[in-house]
Amino acid sequence: MRILIWHLHGSWTTSFVQGSHEYVIPVLPDRGPFGLGRARTWDWPPNVIEVTPEQLRSEQVDVLVAQRPDELALAGAWLGRTPGQDLPVVYLEHDAPPGPAVSTRHPMADVPGVSIVHVTRFNAVYWDCGRSPVHVVEHGIPDPGARWSGDVPRAAVVVNDPVRRGRTTGTDLLPGFAGAVPLDVFGMRVSGLAAALHLNPERCREFEDLPQARMHAELARRRVYVHPLRWTSLGLSLIEAMQLAMPVVALAATEAPRAVPPAAGAISTDPAELHAAVRRFIRDPAAAREAGLAAREAACARYGLKRFLADWDEILQEVRA
């Protein structure tokens, strides 16, 4: 099967393109938001093919996996086909509703010929998708291996664009964690975070735009993983940290309570409990190791790549039928 999909979320796409299909990725000269092409900081297999809009008109495409409303119009213009009529469409929703949780209507709700796939059960329950066919394919990732050593007695956080996103990513909670233990923050656009939060740079070090392999190596050296995100979908970095066998201290928000069992570390809506947990793991490497092994067991059981790809194959076959 040949699948047209834009490069939007690099970590998620890295898992998706591990399947047995060919993946057609649009590329533009400026490599802007609708033409990023192949990833540069993730390792993608050769069955991921870059194509220009001009080339797409002569390409065979079996299914469109859209992730933004504008992609349906772009696909129609570039392919010369109408998504949802003469081209099967799956709309993949990565995020929790940005508006009122109980009444936000999904942009693809009741659009003819479009099935909606959510990445978490939480998202599927909270979005109003009308009468559209709705599926859930929970995340699955390539196993990075049980690499935790915890030899750096600091807490790791992975978050993208934390200054702009603010409360959504729990950025306002970071000073409390930094008061409990020193933090190392990884992600895109994290430079300037310590200054924005008025934190001592040594209490909140910043590591921006590391390639995935290096980030995994660095995360595995930190004693504990902190997940402060308040209103986002389930971050793949949380699952990666768990599969690395890191103990996890997580805010009990959105999908995190389903993903993080208590034995994996600590999960709570009480910041004081979370601060106490990170201090305990920093002081007690043996307890950190035990929780990390429980985290890895839970993450490998629920978020394996084989199950993820099989679930997607089932949906792709269904929409083509």
Account of the 3D structure:
- It contains 13 helices and 13 strands.
- The chain is an alpha/beta fold.
- The protein is elongated.
- The mean pLDDT is 97.
Report the CATH superfamily of the largest domain. Glycogen Phosphorylase B
Instruction: Compute the number of structural domains.
Output: 2
**Using DSSP, what is the number of strands?**
13
Query: What Rg is obtained from the alpha carbons, in whole angstroms?
Result: 20 Å
The CATH class assignment of the largest domain is Alpha Beta
Tell me the strand percentage band.
Answer: 15-25%
CATH topology of the largest domain: Rossmann fold
CATH architecture of the largest domain: 3-Layer(aba) Sandwich
Order of helices and strands: EHEEHEHEEHEEHHEHEHEHEHEHHH
**Strand arrangement across the biggest beta sheet:** 3-2-1-4-5-6-7
Globally, the shape reads: elongated
Please identify the structural class as seen in this structure: alpha/beta
* Tally of helical runs: 13
Whole-Å distance between the termini?
Answer: 13 Å
Mean pLDDT: 97
Poorly predicted residue ranges: none
State the oligomer.
Answer: single chain
Instruction: Bin the helical content.
Output: 25-40%
- Biggest sheet, open or closed, and with what strands and sense? 7 strands, parallel
